[in-house]
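Memo to structure team: turn this sequence into structure tokens by end of day. - J.P.
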Amino acid sequence: MANHKSALKRHRQNVKRAARNRHYRTIVKGLLKRARGAVAEGAADAETTVKKAISTVDKVCGKGIIPANRASRYVSKLSQLLQK
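Reply from structure team:
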């Protein structure tokens, strides 16, 4: 454990940010799962579900929580699924 005051503060900040990032990543995983399921079932609201998932992925990428390449891959795969 850190001993300096600044290092203790940095640790507290890292813990908070890690929890926030984990929360957003969990949300993205759930939305991706729901979107894939909606497309597979051929649900009527599949397009809106996919759009919401893509929007959230872009938002989370903009915050720097997931890398841009990963976000691009997610969006690309969802778009391909929707087009089929």
